[in-house]
Amino acid sequence: VQTLEGNTSGSWNGSQSAGNGVYRRTRYWSNIGCIVRPPYEELTVWKEEVPKPEPKRPEKEPDYMIHGNKMFRLYNQFDGNHMWTTSTAERDSLIKNGWTDEGTAWDVDDNIIPVYRLFNPTSGDHMFTASLNECNALIDAGWNYEGVVDYGAKDGEGTPVYRLYNQSSGDHMFTTSKNENDALTKNGWTSEGIGWYTTA
């Protein structure tokens, strides 16, 4: 079997392609067992190559995942992960699946800086970032973009949302509590500074 690829808008060995797209040309040889004819017959199969869909990315008018004015925080005691959501339905579903409700992390206001949420289908982790560049870099690395979950205030205005990273587990933590931020840092978490500001 021999496979060739390319743009095939013309003909090949008298065979016309089905269109102007990208096609894969595969040659098959089969022994037809006939003495008076060549022992092998060349057959041609045209198969259109379907391009992989472009991953979902933030647009000028991004998808909204803001379902309320409170950001709920939950904890999974089995793997140590935290989760943040404004959706009471998602919160209740996670609680039914064994997550612990830790209450309201902060209030969600109508500010100007979008905060993006992404999901890693390999690890099951979620990531939150106010950086469009970081968001796109994570999408390129295989994360799924899920939409905008919050809007941050201008830098320096409002309450900081601290961002920390656990090198051992690969988890991120987001908190508006300076005491919690300092305690986690003492326990080995790496401070990544302020993720964004909230006016809550």
In short:
The chain is mainly β and 200 residues long. It is built from three helices and 14 strands. A three-stranded antiparallel β-sheet has the order 1-4-5, with no helix packed on it. Strands 7-6-8 form a three-stranded antiparallel β-sheet, with helices on one face. A three-stranded antiparallel β-sheet has the order 10-9-11, covered by helices on one side.
Description:
- The structure is a single chain.
- With about 200 residues, the protein is mainly beta.
- About 15% of the residues lie in helices and about 45% in strands.
- It contains three helices and 14 strands.
- The protein has a three-stranded antiparallel beta sheet with strand order 1-4-5, with no helix packed on it.
- Mean pLDDT is about 80; it is low at about 1-25 and about 30-40.
Number of separate strands:
14
Order of helices and strands: EEEEEEEHEEEHEEEHE
Q: Determine the mean pLDDT.
A: 79
Q: What is the helical fraction, as a range of percent?
A: 10-25%
Helix run count: 3
* N-C termini distance: 65 Å
Shape: globular
Largest sheet geometry: 3 strands, antiparallel
| Rg measurement, Å | 27 Å
Strand numbers in spatial order across the main sheet: 1-4-5
Poorly predicted segments: 1-26, 32-40
* β-sheet strand percentage: 35-45%
